[in-house]
Amino acid sequence: MVGAIVIIIAVIFILMSAGKPVSSTSEVSDESILQSSDELVSQGSDELVVNVYGHTGEPETGFDPLLGWGCGHVNFEPLVQSTLFKSADNGSMINDLATSYSVSSDGKIWTVNIRDDARFTDGEKLTAEDVAFTFNTAIGSNSELDMSNLEKATAINDTAVKFELKEPQSSFIWKLRYVGIVPEHAYGKETYGSNPIGSGPYKLVQWDRSQQAIFELNEDYYGEKPYFKKITMLFLDKDTAFAAAKSGEVDIAEIEISHANQTIDGYNLVALLAARALGVSFPMQNDTGKNSLKGDPIGNNVTADIAIRKALNIGIDRKALLQGVISGKGAVEYTGVDQRVYGNPEARINDSNLEEAIKILENAGWKDTDGDGIREKDGTRAEFKLYYSSDDQTRQALSVAVSEQARKLGIKIDLVGASWDEIYANQYSSAVLYAYSNIDTFTLYLQYHSKVADDTYKNPGLYNNPVVDGYLEAALKSEGQDEATKYWQLAAYDGNTGYGPAGDATWLWLVTTDYLYMVDETLDLGTPQRNSGADIMGNIYEWKRVTQPARH
Asked: What is the model's pTM?
């Protein structure tokens, strides 16, 4: 009851802030939470009200691509800005502003030709100078963009731009895919995010901080124009959004997995694959007393033993986790990138095999000599800590389930719910339940290439395998994406070694989780892009309304 009241009050506050009268709170039920707001409710067939938390959340710095909008931790369609490339429904790259591109034989020079009919919403023509300005400004402007390998971008003429890289990087195509182009003549770092000028399919016309953003169709857009002329994007948490869907006052609401088995009249539950992998990172080094640059401890004598890592990968029942923790809304996961085109099926193993897992432990010398149910080896107990975000119920549930299954193997996992600051301080000496969803292939390089303990969350186990390093470097130096894919796959497993469970078992990957949405049954979302569940609006050009919504 208290939770319901909190939800109701939260939405009422949004409506009052938007300037619409609301009756006394004692008379408002969750069936009519948003009913009185004409500004928030889409009454026309070509108007849309959405709450897609995973797509954006609210951008703290506004709708500025150079500060993370559209191309930060979760890549998504920026709506206001155009990008050089887009994704097709099957996940492949297709042109947007770009008309073609080429890469030099040494992989360091990328030349992109762009169309000549794109204009910004202030009427100015978009040229290669704007593209070069965007990427040059992006260098060092936002750590999530990671433009550290870009030396400079130069406009060759109005319709061609040259990108000079410090080192070959086949994955640079993903930067060209998601970074929205801003106008050189109208960009100000402090002001642009609140009043963005772009050349995308929509223009921002209103932003009420902590409440909503309203987008209207850009009538001068050069590409295929979307069906919807107005989009109101609400900034509600997922529980509040679910209540708004129950009232029938939003078209799309992203919801928590805890609501996966609930139904709402007039809505369809849409589960979109996102290849958002959750798994346990293992410290790969022994504890020798070393510390990171910040003084955090390095090493764990239990997880550094490959027998422990192999036994957990083979013994854990991932299907049970999938069904029991996330209601089947996802898939089992073995390598962290199983669903990607650059995933390697040969790197996977057959799991849920307690007998084989126990044999691995026994042969490696891990035995329960004192009968307490926990194995030991050379005086060391098979026990380690597993950290997870205390704010994430799914990660907590997965951690509990993994620890319970591990006890059947004689391995004790001590659970620690903590803040991210505390997690990062312990990631080199303890296991961590992490989630990864970035589709940029450069993530693989950052995740598994050897590095120093620099206290960033990439490669938290400090994995160091020269053979894998070689494959990752070869992938970046590849001339084409097909060749790069071959090396990305070999890094996972080459028949002898690799980061996957068939190789060094650097992680205990568990499941991938779908992104869940309650979608008004009057909407046709076309064909969602492959593995881009966080970017539900990536194919906004295909959306339409098939019947008039029946609002309460």
From this structure: 0.82
